[in-house]
From TrEMBL:
Protein's name in the database: diguanylate cyclase
UniProt KW Methyltransferase keyword: no
Organism lineage: Bacteria, Pseudomonadati, Thermodesulfobacteriota, Desulfuromonadia, Geobacterales
Reactions accelerated catalytically: 2 GTP = 3',3'-c-di-GMP + 2 diphosphate
Domain GGDEF: 181-314
Coiled coil: 119-153
All residue ranges annotated as the Response regulatory domain in the record: 2-116
């Protein structure tokens, strides 16, 4: 372990350094508190043994600076009998132990330094364990966040799934009841999607659904929510949106999809890929989430059987 010995008496400093070097410590020396602080700031030693009385910065002041820089460093104070009260005060302020000069035995230096070194090792180990726990906890939170996100997302399109949409709609209706501002939903279905799958195969059909999802997301506001309801059916939740505004959003999406150059669109029955949309608003079209969904679904049915590629809101 690296150790810093600080004393303005060269002879005493040399004796302490030799004893600790013989014990296996890697010893650095400093002849003043100021020099020790400069050395410590450059390389934070886990153990410091310092005299309490020195010209310039005292051992107490050095202790305070060291603890401010690295609270884990263990500091042993060397003092005379005359300064024992000051040494005890230093321990109350964070010093690990003290040595009284003149030393009764050089073995005492080794014993105190050994205990302090063991304390420094334990503190370092505890710090590393704490860091490992914090890293593991952070990683666990990230994994939980990913798993939570996966649980509410559709695996193919990355839009929200049916279950999350139902929960979001219930929350939005509750919020609407408090605020008095209407919300709307737009239920949509890809026209003749079975024909596209039969002609191009399911992998290309999946690509179409993913691209359609991208178009939906790019067109919506940050407060809106897009979900894959099932198969080729999609639904939009539009907070704070009356029916007329929802119809404009749905119509713009319909046109956007109609104009998109999907691969093989010319072989579709309408000569292009299109969507049909049913729009319903709360509270005007029903008293609860179930009624609003049923209303939008019925209007989607009307759009499909009225020629497709259209928005129905009444």
């Amino acid at each position: 372990m690296e150790l810093l010995v600080v004393d303005d008496e060269e002879t005493l400093r040399s004796v302490v350094s030799q004893v600790l070097s013989a014990d296996g410590f890697e010893v650095a020396e400093a002849a003043s508190g100021e020099e020790a602080l400069a050395v410590f700031r450059e390389k934070s030693h886990p153990l410091v043994i310092t005299d309490i009385r020195m010209g310039g910065m005292s051992g107490i002041e050095l202790l305070e600076e060291i603890k401010r820089h690295n609270p884990d460093t263990q500091v042993v104070i060397m003092t005379s009998h005359a300064s024992l009260d000051t040494a005890l005060s230093a321990m109350r302020n964070g010093a690990y132990d003290y040595l009284v000069k003149p030393f009764e035995s050089l073995d005492l230096i080794s014993a105190v330094a050994g205990r302090a070194a063991e304390k420094a090792r334990l503190v370092a180990q505890n710090r590393e364990l704490l860091n490992q726990l914090q890293r593991a906890n952070s990683e666990l939170q990230e994994v939980n966040s990913v798993l939570k996100e996966m649980a509410v997302r559709d695996g193919l399109t990355a839009l929200y799934n049916h279950r999350h949409f139902q929960e979001a709609l219930a929350l939005e209706i509750a919020r609407t009841n408090r605020s008095g501002r209407p919300c709307s939903i737009a239920f949509m279905d890809v026209d003749n999607f079975k024909a596209y799958n039969d002609t191009h195969g399911h992998p290309d059909g999946d690509k179409l659904l993913r691209r359609l999802s991208e178009l939906l997301v790019s067109h919506l506001r940050s407060s809106d929510l897009a979900a894959r309801y099932g198969g080729e059916e999609f639904v939009l939740l539009l907070p704070d949106t009356p029916k007329q505004a929802a119809v404009r959003i749905a119509e713009a999406l319909r046109v956007k999809v109609e104009q998109e150059r999907f691969p093989g669109r010319e072989r579709q029955p309408l000569g292009r890929v299109t969507i049909s949309v049913g729009v319903a608003s709360y509270p005007g079209d029903g008293p609860d989430a179930k009624a609003i969904l049923a209303c939008a679904d019925q209007r989607l049915y009307q759009a499909k059987h009225g020629g497709r590629n259209r928005v129905v809101a009444e």
